[in-house]
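Key result, reporting period 2: structure in, sequence out.
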């Protein structure tokens, strides 16, 4: 039975879709003003594990993941670079999807961009103006939180003190608001500003929060199953999404809210503003593999903080190599004919352990332990020659099931197989006997490219993977 910790109720709850077997899922995507760092990708990897696990459980999914392609940072940076918003964001959007694919993250069903949904945002704001949940001040439009008594229900922040006596103007930033906590739905822009849209309530541009309300409700309906994002979005972004959406529709917005904890570096949140970040590209340039980065990011349950160190990334690299080597060796092993039902039962038990851990609010670290237990069991059985040919396919099939969620084994054919290595080594020895050193060097280089190191020893040629 799948259970999630729902931020809204602060309870571990059994998951039950609103509609039959269908799950409608919204995950807040990146702000495309720069390259995403691996902290961002921790949250997106959690989103991928969530997506894959819902499919594994047999649900039919509609998964929306937006791109925030208009906000203050984008507007300012585009202006400084003398570019339009589209020109400025295009290379970052392209890079984002490249990194996304390389990390094995499955593409969402719909990836809407904020700038393509301005009309939907305007409609919501019109509704909020009509029903008194929004007001105009100096050309900008604000959400009136005093008109939404549920404000704070997600973040559990008590706003009562701030809301009462909300009539006086509090000058907290350059915009004038009735109450310090009221937030902008639409920001006035000067007539000569390049980034602006015309609306019945004046030319301007949307606030960040209204973007997600508009895109989520357009594709998933007024009420949908799951809304997810990083923990820093809980307040104010998600609290404000709820206020605007429910203020406009009077229906519950998302049923389940999931928040992933931050990736930290030496105790501090990895972020652009602190300058303590690595992009995915930085780590690839340092020689790390995308799979090891993925493994590291998913190795700690999403609701716990993860401290990034190069030591743990090196460890992840070794673990991935060991797991792949295990699968390759199993594929190639000379096994006795027959079947060992005991081993197959154990494999099934570990798959059940895996599923139980994932059912428990996506506990990936316990789920990974089940995979490592399976590997240990099969290694022992192979060493004692009690793993048989028919078990091989059963176990490989079980590994595929684990990997449908973990996505860490990669294509089996990606890696050169032991038998291919040995065949090439045989050919190289033959070439050397024939004094064909050109071919011999060619084979050494070819193997080197695959990360295979050759060692001449007194007992003959040995090889190992780097
Ligand atoms: P942004 O591009 O700033 O809109 O952020 C995209 C996503 O990354 C959001 O869901 C954030 O909550 C998340 N995020 C930002 N920093 C971190 C971090 N250090 N660890 C995990 N998630 C993060
Ligand atoms: Zn959002």
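The corresponding designed sequence is given below.
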């Amino acid at each position: 039975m799948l259970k999630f910790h729902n931020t809204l109720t602060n309870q571990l709850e059994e998951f039950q879709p609103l509609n039959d077997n269908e799950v409608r899922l919204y995950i807040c995507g990146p702000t495309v003003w720069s390259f995403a760092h691996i902290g961002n990708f921790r949250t997106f990897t959690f989103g991928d594990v969530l997506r894959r696990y819902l499919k594994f459980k047999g649900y039919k999914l509609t998964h929306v993941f937006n791109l925030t392609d208009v906000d203050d940072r984008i507007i300012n940076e585009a202006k400084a670079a003398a570019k339009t918003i589209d020109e400025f964001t295009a290379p970052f959007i392209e890079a984002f999807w490249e990194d996304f694919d390389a990390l094995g993250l499955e593409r969402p069903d719909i990836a809407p961009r904020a700038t393509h949904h301005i009309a939907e945002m305007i409609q919501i704001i019109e509704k909020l103006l009509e029903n008194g949940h929004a007001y105009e001040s100096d050309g900008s439009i604000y959400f009136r939180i005093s008109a939404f008594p549920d404000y704070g229900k997600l973040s559990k922040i008590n706003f009562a003190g701030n809301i009462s006596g909300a009539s006086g103007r509090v000058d907290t930033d350059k915009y004038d608001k009735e109450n310090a906590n009221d937030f902008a739905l639409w920001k006035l822009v000067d007539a000569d500003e390049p980034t602006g849209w015309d609306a019945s309530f004046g030319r301007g541009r949307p606030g960040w929060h209204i973007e997600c309300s508009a895109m989520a409700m357009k594709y998933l309906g007024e009420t949908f199953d799951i809304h997810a994002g990083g923990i820093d979005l809980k307040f104010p972004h998600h609290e404000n999404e709820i206020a605007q959406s429910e203020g406009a529709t009077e229906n519950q917005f998302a049923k389940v809210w999931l928040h992933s904890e931050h990736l930290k570096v030496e105790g501090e949140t990895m972020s652009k503003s602190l300058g303590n970040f690595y992009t995915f590209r930085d780590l690839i340039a340092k020689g790390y593999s995308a799979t090891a980065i993925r493994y590291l990011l998913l190795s700690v349950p999403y609701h716990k903080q993860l401290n990034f160190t190069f030591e743990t990334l090196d460890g992840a690299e070794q673990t991935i190599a060991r797991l792949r080597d295990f699968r390759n060796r199993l594929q190639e092993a000379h096994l006795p004919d027959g079947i060992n039902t005991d081993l197959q039962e154990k494999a099934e038990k570990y798959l059940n352990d895996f599923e139980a851990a994932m059912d428990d609010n996506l506990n990936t670290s316990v789920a990974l332990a089940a995979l490592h237990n399976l590997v240990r069991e099969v290694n022992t059985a192979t060493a004692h020659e009690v793993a048989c040919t028919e078990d091989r396919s059963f176990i490989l099939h079980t590994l595929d099931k684990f990997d449908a969620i973990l996505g860490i084994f990669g294509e089996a054919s990606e890696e050169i197989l032991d038998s291919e290595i040995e065949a090439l080594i045989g050919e190289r020895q033959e070439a050397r006997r024939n004094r064909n050193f050109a071919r011999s060097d060619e084979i050494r280089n070819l193997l080197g490219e695959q990360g295979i190191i050759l060692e001449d020893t007194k007992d003959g040629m040995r090889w190992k993977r780097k």
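Residues 163-173 have pLDDT under 50 and may be disordered. Residues 283-406 form a domain with the Isoleucyl-tRNA Synthetase; Domain 1 fold (CATH 1.10.730.10). This case is discussed further under Risks and Mitigation.
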